[in-house]
Amino acid sequence: MPAVAPVPPQPLLEECHQRRQQLMEKIGQGTAIFASAPTAVMHNDVEYNFRQDSDFFYLTGLVEAGAIAVLAPHHEEHQFVLFVQPKDAEKETWSGYRIGMEQAKDLYGADEAYPLTELDEKLPQYLQKADRIYYHLGQDEKTNATVLRHWRTQLRKYHKQGTGPLAIEDAKFLLHPFRCRKSEAELTYLRRAMAAGIEAHLRAMDYARPGLYEFQVQTEMEYIFRQHFGEGPAYPSIVASGSNACILHYTENNRQMQDGELLLIDAGCSYGYYNSDITRTFPVGQKFTTEQRILYELVLEAQTQAIAAVQPGKPWNEFHDVAVRVMVEGLLELGLLQGDLDEIIKEEKYKPFYMHKTGHWLGLDVHDSGFYKVGEEWLPFQPGQVVTVEPGLYIRPDFKPAEDQPEVPERWLGIGIRIEDDVLVTATGHEVLSAAVPKAIADLENRHSL
Ligand code: GLY
Ligand code: MN
Ligand code: MN
């Protein structure tokens, strides 16, 4: 069992209520519509596990397909309305429990709830006095079409009604600045997602050795995610040995690992819909080779300096720029790049080695909502935001240098390294939430007697 006693997650319903209130203050005379995530077919009539849309979950706490939430702060009786699948014993026997209209009100706090079949009949009363609709055009074309159809109807009636929504605005511009700053309760959930991720990475380090297959390490880790009451992996786990580590989203995980190689593991847990996203790279056997060690130290130094640049008030781009500069300096010293440091950075000639950004927001989505830039301005970090810091170097076996850059000698080929931690911006600095997973070379070598 896990070292920390796991706790089952519960939706933060009281916080969902506060979030709706907060959002409705911004909406004013508008009406906001949020839809559940669409279901997805795996094959024939079998579906993938349902994963609720993060905005919908953030506002309602409800994990049910097909539901639609309406926020209408200007409505006289119903500010929060849910349209849900009605209770139906026969249908529920086949496809699972539904909350139904009563619980939508009693448990999830809706002022009114209707069966989805009444959407066309009931939705207009929440739109006709609104001055605009807030809605995110999402992946589900059916819901998009429904919202647009209702908007068109309202526009047609405007000249007689004298009111109605004249515009649609993307709801994410209102909601995502809230979502990006985590409350204490959300941080508790993120810390539990971290605890599961940390334990899984520690287990992987204990367990991985030459001769095992990558998926054997993967299953050890994912077992731990579920033992922590996690829903499972936050994203398809990447367990990449040898040159597979140069494939950023490698998920086949079917290779037998060999001594002398590195193992890159990028895996995190989803717990109560909050995610950890952690990467470590360590020797499959006992020791780094000389080239592996040199590149690893470079990535670690880049990560250390990038984490130091995660501070409230610092602009978003700085930690990425810091990581790039450290790695380009190192690659120049090694002769793997040549020329002027600033020019290489400006012309992005390092990109064959490092082709992704150094991080992203983390929360209900692994690549969480929130803005990075407004106009030409990079936004400053704010307390309560959580960001990943994940520099890497990747030298594919068929590595092609940028124009005017040297060929890479063979001994460097096939090495892929990434180190990723999850960092909370605090009022005075930062806290590395995933710090308990070792990354110093001394802690990654000689882990067990083979
Ligand atoms: N594992 C996805 C990412 O690191 O962004
Ligand atoms: Mn990752
Ligand atoms: Mn990441």
Keywords:
single chain; 450 residues; alpha+beta; 6-stranded mixed β-sheet; 3-stranded antiparallel β-sheet; 14 helices; binds glycine; binds manganese (II) ion
Q: Strand pairing plus helix content: what structural class?
A: alpha+beta
Q: Could you give the count of β-strands?
A: 21
Q: How far apart lie the N and C ends? A: 25 Å
Beta-strand fraction estimate: 15-25%
Q: What ligands are attached or bound here?
A: glycine, manganese (II) ion
Indicate the overall shape.
Answer: globular
Q: Brief description of this entry?
A:
The protein is an alpha+beta fold.
SSE map:
Blueprint: H1 13-27, E1 31-35, E2 41-43, E3 46-47, H2 54-60, E4 68-71, E5 80-84, H3 89-95, H4 100-106, E6 112-115, H5 119-122, H6 124-127, E7 133-135, H7 141-161, E8 168-169, H8 172-180, H9 184-207, H10 214-227, E9 232-233, E10 238-241, E11 262-267, E12 269-271, E13 274-275, E14 278-283, H11 290-308, H12 318-333, H13 341-346, E15 373-374, E16 377-378, E17 386-389, E18 392-395, E19 415-418, E20 421-425, E21 430-432, H14 441-444
Parallel strand pairs: 1-7, 5-6, 7-8
Antiparallel strand pairs: 1-4, 2-3, 4-5, 9-12, 10-11, 11-14, 12-13, 15-16, 17-20, 18-19, 20-21
Bound molecules: glycine (GLY) and manganese (II) ion (MN) (2 copies).
Glycine (GLY) is lined by residues 235, 266, 277, 360, 366, 390, 420.
